[in-house]
## 1
Amino acid sequence: MLTIDISCKVAYLNPTAERMTGWTLEEASGRAVGEVMRIIDGATGEPCRNPIELAVHQDTVASLAANCVLVRRDGSETAVEDSVAPIHNREGNLIGAVIVFRSLTETRATALRMSRLAQYDFLTGLPNRMLLRDRLTQALALAARYGRRLAVLFVDLDHFKDVNDSAGHTIGDHVLQSVAGRLLACVRSSDTVSRQGGDEFVTVLSEIDQVRSLMPVAEKILAVIATPHDLTSNVVHITASIGISIFPQDGRDGETLIQRADAAMYWAKHNGRNTIHLFDGRLKT
């Protein structure tokens, strides 16, 4: 909190304002508020008028414009938000104004954490269902624009319940994390690997030139998942089944492609697990 008198000179700073501005109360008292509390536009770096001056000149409540940044005495910057109000004496005469402001650094960090929790799987750090659909929508738009193919691979671990039942859920979680890392290593940075939940993963391969080029990628995924997972105290052996759908022949929207890759995956399991199956029109979704 910072207060000014009728001439816009600093009258008071509380300890938090001292830390945020870099000025002590003793040093700031009597100085112009614009010197102690420098405000700039975060995008342009241009000076912004402090709303506390407006509160004095117009005897009204005010607030900072969006994206304003406080420049500390040492030159460092922090985004802030505020509330400003005029101060009146008992007779109702205007005698100054007060601004209550806080740093948005922690607020924004919290918002980023919440956003990440909403879009990423907490266990593996991979995109979750929601973010997958957003990325798939964008990838489909690009594929349609440039006449490219796109593939959706639905990967499901075989007999994963047996791992949880025999080794425990902690080991099961470590296996899922290991699988996530191996899936990421099999694809390009422009592709997306997501966890749908449980032991299900979906991989989106963008910019596919030939359908036959998918099989080496899918076979590599099966091979790396089947490689023993050395988890310090346990070595876990597990395989996976993969179903594949392709844009545009198997569907033109993300939901349809995921459903059809899922149907193909179930057919792969039906054929003995640790196998790959391409969707065809005879499969039910």
## 2
Amino acid sequence: MVINEQTAYTVPGNSHTSRHASVELLYAEKTGDASRRDAAQRELAWASYWVDEDGKNQYPRDDNWLTDGYGDFVRHYLRAMAWDPELAPDTQDHLLRTTSVIRSITYGKTQIAYGKFDRDSEEELKLGASTPTGIHGGTMRWDPVTGVLRVSARAERVVISVAPRS
């Protein structure tokens, strides 16, 4: 199911469709009802077809709503990955969500380090390229099956020691 961008612009687009999909995945996460999960993933896939190889949005007539995709589409897709970490790439490491504001983050071969605004926070990362081996600045819970790392941070700077995933 695709969603028109506006009632005045009755053309399906990636902004509203990706928003709908992300909310479906949030619902699945909060309730455990995954009956719309596959449909939401298909909506996200459909929405990504509107983005060209160089990152620019393409709409049928290149009308005024194409700017929604630059901010909204990306934000909705990132939220969808947080609510369904399986959507995040299996070969890369990604911060999926946080309860603070991240000031900076670096993904290195031996560590993932990030600075944030609040001392106490909760983060969730999908580790596809790495396996966590230790942490400074908090505690962690690792699920090797899903690749999801949950961090309870107690410092403004967190350093996660990692090893390449085999």
